[in-house]
Amino acid sequence: MEVFNVTAGAEQFTCNAYLVTGERTVLVDVGSMPGVEDVVADHVDSLDAIVLTHQHSDHVDQLDAVLERFDADVYAYAEHPHRTHTLEDGDTVEMGDETFDVVYTPGHAADHVSFVGETALFSGDVVVYNDGAFDDGSFGRTDLPGQSRERLIQSLQGLLEQLPDSVTALYAGHGEAFTAETGPDGDSVRDVVERALSRAEERKPKYPGE
C-alpha cells in the first residue's frame, strides 16, 4: 500500500487528500485544490472509491471535479447528493491493501469519522501531528458553531481504545503525515494521539483569541 498526498502542491487552503493505492484504489477526502483530479490521474488510471472523513468545505469542494474524471463510489457518514455508501461506526472499508475500521469521531464536525487499519490511521481533523497550534500532537478546532471540545475529547479517547500498536503511520487532514520513528525512544502514533488528548483536556483555547 502506498499513500500520496495529492494536494501537497496547493497554493490555497485545503485539506490533505490522500490517494491510497494497492488492491483497491481509494481517495481519502478530495480537498479544495482546483486540478486535484489531474494530480490523481498522474498516479492512477481509475479510482475505485472516495472516502470522506467529514464534509467541511476544505475536504469536499472538489468532489464534483473528481467525479467528472473518475467513476468512483462515494462513502460518507452524513447525507450528500453523491453518496453511494453510508458509513457507520463499526463498519469496515477496504483501502489499498488493508481493511480499515470506521470509527465515529465527532467534535470537530458532527459527521466526522476516522479510519483505523493494521498499519495506518487516517484521522481527518480529529487529531493531527503538527499545525499552527502544536507541532507534535494537536487536534481539530472546536470553537465554531456545531463543534464541541467535550465530544472531541471523547472521540480521542475512543480512538485510542481502538488503535492497535501495529499502526505506525498517521495521515491527518492538515499538517505533515507522521511515521513512527525507529528505536525505543521514538514516538509512536499512540504517543501523538495521547499528547493531543492531553492538550485537548486542558480545555484551553487552541488558538490565541478564540
Structure keywords:
14 strands, 5 helices, 6-stranded mixed beta sheet, alpha/beta, 210 residues
Give the helices and strands, then pairings:
Blueprint: E1 2-5, E2 18-21, E3 26-28, H1 36-43, E4 49-51, H2 57-60, H3 63-69, E5 73-76, E6 85-86, E7 92-95, E8 98-104, E9 113-116, E10 120-124, E11 127-128, E12 138-139, H4 149-161, E13 169-172, E14 178-179, H5 189-201
Parallel strand pairs: 3-4, 4-5, 5-6, 10-13
Antiparallel strand pairs: 1-2, 2-3, 7-8, 8-9, 9-10, 11-12, 13-14
InterPro entries: MBL_Glyoxalase_II (IPR051453), Metallo-B-lactamas (IPR001279), RibonucZ/Hydroxyglut_hydro (IPR036866)
Pfam family, one: Lactamase_B
Keywords: Hydrolase, Metal-binding, Zinc
Characterization of the model:
This protein has 210 residues and is an alpha/beta fold. The chain has a single domain, classed as Ribonuclease Z/Hydroxyacylglutathione hydrolase-like (Metallo-beta-lactamase, Chain A), CATH 3.60.15.10. Helices cover 21% and strands 24% of the residues. It has 5 helices and 14 strands. The protein has a 6-stranded mixed sheet, with no helix packed on it. The chain has a 6-stranded mixed sheet with strand order 7-8-9-10-13-14. The chain has a two-stranded antiparallel sheet with strand order 11-12. A hairpin with a 2-residue loop joins strand 7 and strand 8. Helix 4 runs antiparallel to helix 5. The longest helix has 13 residues. It is globular, with a radius of gyration of 16 Å. The model has no long low-confidence stretch (mean pLDDT 95). Keywords: Hydrolase, Metal-binding, Zinc. Its cofactor is Zn(2+). This is Glyoxylase, beta-lactamase superfamily II. Pfam families: Lactamase_B. InterPro entries: MBL_Glyoxalase_II, Metallo-B-lactamas, RibonucZ/Hydroxyglut_hydro.
